[in-house]
Amino acid sequence: MKKKKLASAFLSLSLAAGVLAGCSGSGSSEKSSGDGDTIKIGVNLELSGGVASYGQSIAEGLELATAEINKEGIDGKKIKLIKVDNKSEASEATSGAIKLTSQDQVAAIVGAATSTNSIAQVQIAQDNKVPVISPSGTSPEITFSKDKLNDFVFRTSFIDPFQGTVAANFAAKEIKAKSAAIYIDSSSDYSKGLAAAFKEQFEKNGGKVVAEEAYIAKDTDFRSTLTRLKSAKPDFIFLPGYYEEAGLIVKQARETGLDVPFMGGDGWDSPKLVEIAGAKALNNTFITNHYSSGDPDEKIQNFVSAFKAKYKDKSPDAFNALGYDTGYFLADAIKRAGSADSEKIKEALEKTADLELVTGTFTLDEKHNPIKSATILEFKEGKQVFNTKINP
Amino acid sequence: MELIQQLINGVSLGSIYALIALGYTMVYGIVKLINFAHGDVFMVGSFVGFYSITVLDLSFVPALLISMTVCALFGVLIERIAYKPLRNATRIAALITAIGVSLLIEYGFIYVRGAQPEAYPNDVLPTDKFNIFGVSINSQSILIFGVAVVLMIILQIIVHKSKIGKAMRAVSYDADAAKLMGINVDNTISATFAIGSALAGAAGVIFGIYYIKIEPLMGVLPGLKAFVAAVLGGIGIIPGAMVGGLLLGVIEALVSAAGYSLWRDAVAFVVLILILIFMPQGLFGKNKKEKV
After folding, report:
1. Is residue A83 part of a domain?
2. Domain check: are A75 and A134 in the same one?
3. Domain count, chain B
4. Contacts by A372-375, CB closer than 8 A, 24 or more apart
5. Cβ contacts of B119 on chain A, cutoff 8 Å
6. Which among A124, A130, A61 has a CA at the least distance from the CA of A90?
7. Which of A165, A379, B69, B136 could lock A282 by a disulfide, CB 3.0 to 4.6 Å apart?
C-alpha cells in the first residue's frame, strides 16, 4: 500500500516536471543569443552577501571594458550585459546560471568571483554548452576536476597552487622564515588549495610547518586559536582566507601579541580589510595578487587613469582589473570566432595566446589556466604598496 | 600561562553571551516564551551603536545608552505587536511567531540596508595591551567585562529592590494572582521586554567594538548560543544566565585551545543536549514537579 502511494506520488511529480519543462522550452525558443546587433553576455556575480565587494568590483571593471569595446563594437555588434546577483551563495550561483542559459539565452557567462560559486556553475555550462569565464576563481577544480577538463569553463586569474607557491618562496627567500603556521578557512576550497600548495613548496624549501589550524567562514572569535598558534612560535603565518575573517584574525592576532608577518592571497584584497583590521595591525602583512595599481607598466597606468575617470577617482583594485580583463578576453575570442555562437566562442577562447591584458600577458594552457605573472604587495599604514612581481 | 590567557579569552566572549542570555531568561521567566527574535534585537542594537558612533560622532557611553534605549523601545514594540495578541494562545503558536519575527527582522533589515557587512571604527575604546607574567590582556576585554558586570548588578538591583522588579517577580510567580493584587500585568511584561532588549542592545555595541565586523545575520549564532547559556544556567533564573554565559564562553575557548576549533559550535550544542538530558532544570534550577 505504502509503495503504491509512493509510486503514484513519484508519477505525479514527474508529470508536473514534464509540464514545467515543456513550458520553459517553448517560452525560450523565440529568443537567441545574437539577435541582430547585440551579443548577450550573462554576468553571474556576488553583488550582495559576504563577498559582495569582489562581485561589485568585477562588475565595475567589466562595465568599463564593455563601454570601451562598444565604442567600436565587435564586427558592428555591441555587447549587452545581463546581470544576476548570486548573493555570494553557491546555490544561487547555480540557479543564476540556469536562468542565464535557459531564459536569457546568453552567448557566454562571466562569473563568479569566488571558486566555490564558480564551481557551482560548471555543470550548467557543460550541459548547455555555454562558455563560463570565472574572473577571479583561483581553485584548479573550476576548469579541471576529477581528471577531466571542463571544456566550457575558463578563467582570467591564475590558480591557487601558483599563489601558494609564490607565497612559500617569498616567505623563505625574502622573509627568511624557517618555520611557518597555516591557518585556513575549512569551509573554502580556495583556502585549502592555497594552503596545500604553500605547505608543499615551503617544506621543499627546507622550512617547517609548525602548526595548522582552521576556522569556518563567519566565525568572529579567533583569540583562542591564535593564543594556541602563538605558543607554537612560528616565524611566519600563512592565512589564505577572505577579507572579512582575515581582517578580524590579523586584528585579534596583534592584540594577543602575535607580531610575526602574515601573508594571504588575493582574498584579502578589499578596502573592507583595512577597515576591519585597522591600518596599524596590518603592518608587516603581505599578499599575492593579480596586479598592482602602483605598477609602473604603461598598459596598467592607462587602465588606472581610464578607471579613475569613470569611477570618481577611485583607484582600481585587482578585482576591477580582472573584471576589465575578462571583458577583453571574451571580446578578443568573439572577434576571432567571428560569431556570437557559444561553441565557436569556446573554441576561440581555447586558442587565446599572447593576449596583452592589464593583469599580465597571457596564454591559455591545456587546462584552461592562463600562464601569467603574480604581484606581491605589502600593507604599509593601510595602503597596498607594490613589492615585487614574480613571473611563472 | 596559555591557560590563563585562554580563560581571559573565554570570559570576554562569555560576558557577551551572558548579556544576551539575560534577555532570554527574563522573558521566559515571565511569559514562558523563548523569544527567538532576541538575537536580532542584539543585531539591531549593534547597528544603532554603529550609526551613533559613525554618523552622530558619539563616544562609547552615549552610543551605548542610545542603543539600549532604541532596543528597549524595539523590544516593547515587538512584544505589543507580535506576542501580546497571542498571550492566551498555545505556547507553540507563540514560539512559531517568535521565529517568524526573527526572520522578519533579519530579512527586513537586509531589504532596507543591504547585506554587506560594516566595520566598527577601531578607535572607539583605547586598545592598550598589558603584559602580566606573559599573559597579554587587552584593555578592551577588561572594559567589556566591566560593563557587563555593572549592567548585571544594575539588573539585580532593579529586580530585587525596585517596585517594577517586585511586580515582575510576582507576575513570573503567578500572573493571575498578580492581576488580582492590582498589578498591571501588561505593563510589567512590557517592562521585562524593555529591560531584556536593552541588555541585548548593550551586548550588540560591545560585540561591535570587540569584534569589529557586524552584519544583518550576526545575531543568529550568538542568539542560539545565548539560548544554550540560558538553558545551561536554568532558564528563567537570572544569576543562572550570567553563570551559564560565562561558562559557555570559557568552554568554547578551552575547546579551541585544545586544538578543536572547528568543533567549537558543535560543542556548544552538545552542552545543550547533555543539559536537557541530565539536568533539564539547569545548574541553578530547582527540580520541581509539574502539577497535572
Report:
1. yes
2. yes
3. 1
4. A372/A158, A374/A158, A374/A162, A374/A163, A374/A166, A374/A288, A374/A289, A374/A290, A375/A288, A375/A289, A375/A290, A375/A291, A375/A292, A375/A295
5. 247, 272, 275-276
6. A124
7. A379
| A124 three-class SS | helix
Instruction: Determine, yes or no, domain membership for A58.
Output: yes
B116, closest residue in chain A (CA to CA) = A49
Query: pLDDT tens for residues A4-59?
Result: 555 555 555 555 554 444 444 443 333 445 556 899 999 999 998 878 889 999 99
Domain of B81 in residue numbering reads as 2-121+132-278
Statement to judge: residues A165 and A81 lie in one domain = no
A350 and A262 in a common domain? no
Compute the nearest-CA separation of B228 from chain A (Å): 18
| Enclosing domain of residue A318 | 38-158+297-372
The pLDDT value given to residue A104 = 92
Output the domain CATH number for residue B193: 1.10.3470
Q: A366: exposed, middle or buried (C-beta count within 10 Å: 0-12, 13-18, 19+)? A: exposed
Q: Which of A192, A221, A233, A276 to mutate to test the interface with B (most CBs of B within 10 A)?
A: A221
Residues of chain A neighbouring B130 (CB-CB closer than 8 A): none
pLDDT tens sequence across A96-133 = 999 999 999 999 999 899 989 999 999 999 999 999 99
Tell me whether residue B165 is in a domain: yes
Count structural domains, chain A: 2
pLDDT (tens digit per residue) in A220-262: 889 889 999 998 999 999 999 999 899 999 999 998 889 999 9
For residue A213, give the CATH number of its domain. 3.40.50.2300
- Cβ–Cβ contact B134 with A under 8 A: no
Nearest to B136 among A186, A247, A256 (CB): A256
Per-residue pLDDT, A158: 87
Are A165 and A284 in the same domain? yes
Which band of pLDDT confidence, cut at 50, 70 and 90, is reported for residue B166?
Answer: very high
Q: How many CB pairs under 8 A join A and B?
A: 84
In this structure, is residue B285 part of a structural domain?
no
Give the best residue of B106, B136, B212, B263 to mutate against chain A (max A CB count within 10 A). B212
Q: Which residues pair with B189 in a beta bridge?
A: none
Residue B290 DSSP code:
P
Name the CA dihedral angle for A378, A379, A383, A388, rounded to a multiple of 10 degrees. Answer: 0
Q: Is the pLDDT of residue A341 over 60?
A: yes
On whether residue B288 sits in a domain, the answer given is no
Residue A127 domain-assigned (yes or no):
yes
Q: What is the pLDDT of residues B192-233, one digit of tens each?
A: 999 999 999 999 999 999 888 899 999 999 999 999 999 999
Tell me, yes or no, whether A218 and A314 share the same domain. Answer: no
The answer for residues whose C-beta is within 8 angstroms of residue B107's C-beta and 6 or more apart is none
pLDDT for B93 equals 92
Q: Are A80 and A128 in a shared domain?
A: yes
Q: Please state, in angstroms and rounded to a whole number, the distance separating the CA atoms of residues B138 and A369.
A: 46
* pTM listed for this prediction: 0.75
- The answer to whether position A325 is within a domain reads yes
- Do A171 and A111 lie in one domain? The reply is no
CB atoms within 10 A of CB A176: 10
CA distance A146 to chain B (A): 27
**Are A265 and A349 in a shared domain?**
no
Kindly determine whether residue A225 and residue B261, on different chains, have CB atoms separated by under 8 Å: yes
